[in-house]
Specification:
Layout: H1 2-14, H2 17-35
Keywords: Membrane, Transmembrane, Transmembrane helix
C-alpha cells in the first residue's frame, strides 16, 4: 500500500491529475471491498 501511495504522489507531482484520480478511485473501491 505504501508503494502505491508513493506512486500516486509521484504522478501528482508530475501533474497527472486524471491518472491520480483514477488510481485513487480504484484504491477507494478496493478499500470498500476489503471493509465488507
Amino acid at each position: 500500500m505504501n508503494i502505491l501511495y508513493q506512486y500516486i504522489f509521484l504522478h501528482t507531482s508530475q501533474g497527472s491529475q486524471v491518472f491520480t484520480v483514477t488510481i485513487f478511485y480504484i484504491v477507494y473501491c478496493d478499500y470498500a471491498l476489503w471493509s465488507k
